[in-house]
Amino acid sequence: MSKYNLLLITGEKTTVELAELSITKNVKITNDYREILKLLGIGTNLPIFSEFEEYILHDLRHFQAKSLVLIESNNIEGHTLIYHHDKDSLFFGFFSVINDDQDNINSLIDVLIKYAKKNNFKNIQGPINIPTIIYGWGFMEEHGAKNLMIHKPVNSPIYNQIFEKWSFLEYSKDISYEGYISDFPSGFIDKYEFNDYEIVHYDNWDNIEKIKTEFLVLNARNLPKISVITPDTGALFNNYFAFVKRYGDPFMFVFVRYQKTNELVGCMLSIPNPFSKDENSILNSFVLLSMVIAKNHRNKGLGLLVIDHILKEAKEHNMQYLATCIGSHVVPTIEMCKKYELTLTRTHTIYNKQL
């Protein structure tokens, strides 16, 4: 077993327990969050704006994240963020190497796996780039769109290919349909009856915050495990909500109540895209991030009702373009996008490796 340098920089109130790894490059492990902020730019095409730092630092601190940094001749050659929520799963994000060098990609994967094994994790999953509301997840597959869009990282498909050679298996696929905003086709939702349901759309943030608990319970009870990509989402809600408040508008949250019981049975959360503005410097695009309908209220057209409402509101708020975020297993929503004549623009794959 060869012995290589494993350097350490300690950071805010945390320490790193070092393990001896057999690797072919020098590696630095850092939990200095300010240094990590600088490293994240290596692993994403999406800007690390200074105004985003409070949201990024929140998640880094919450997960006590660290960075594995590949170094050669005192130069940074690659980087990946690592963090965990429980003792079983090691999550990684912002995985990238300079110039997409294949040897360095292999070396960094090797380091990631050895680190996980030395620290007794049972599996590795990613890339999941925290805060996911900004930087998204998955390696984008070949021929994906490369325009800047929040939550949609861009990378070379070589990462998908090499991770698969290391026996990382597909955990989930995230499909993006995109296009310019228009009304639903005439008669699209007319076949459904909504007399027992009420769209709830607030014009201020305070009222949305008041139903936070209902919103989280609805998600927890009705989202399958494969649809919950971000770990510990309940604890991150306030941070993500603060981001949407800063750049977005209350119309981006839409809820459905069942009038007979006053129960919250549906919701849609959208996020603004700070990377696109019109000629007046006003944001003009957003992402439909997640939609949840209670299990016993599905197949009643409520998803169509919610989307129809939010698209009409979006047009009134200067929004011209939208992107979606859909798990490949959510067939009804995919079919809805096709009927709305959106274009499939990119697919992102999240990988998992059992150890």
Please describe what this structure looks like.
The protein is an alpha+beta fold. It folds into two domains: 6-172, Gcn5-related N-acetyltransferase (GNAT) (Aminopeptidase, 3-Layer(aba) Sandwich), CATH 3.40.630; 179-353, Gcn5-related N-acetyltransferase (GNAT) (Aminopeptidase, 3-Layer(aba) Sandwich), CATH 3.40.630.30. Helices cover 29% and strands 28% of the residues. The chain is built from ten helices and 15 strands. It has helices at residues 33-40, 53-63, 102-118, 132-135, 158-165, 205-210, 212-222, 233-247, 302-316, 331-339; strands at residues 6-9, 26-30, 66-72, 75-84, 89-97, 123-126, 139-140, 169-180, 197-200, 253-258, 263-272, 285-293, 321-324, 326-327, 343-354. The chain has a 15-stranded mixed beta sheet that branches. α2 (53-63) runs antiparallel to α8 and α3 packs across α5 (158-165). It is globular.
Secondary structure topology:
Layout: E1 6-9, E2 26-30, H1 33-40, H2 53-63, E3 66-72, E4 75-84, E5 89-97, H3 102-118, E6 123-126, H4 132-135, E7 139-140, H5 158-165, E8 169-180, E9 197-200, H6 205-210, H7 212-222, H8 233-247, E10 253-258, E11 263-272, E12 285-293, H9 302-316, E13 321-324, E14 326-327, H10 331-339, E15 343-354
Parallel strand pairs: 1-2, 5-6, 12-13
Antiparallel strand pairs: 2-3, 3-4, 4-5, 6-15, 7-15, 8-13, 8-14, 8-15, 9-10, 10-11, 11-12
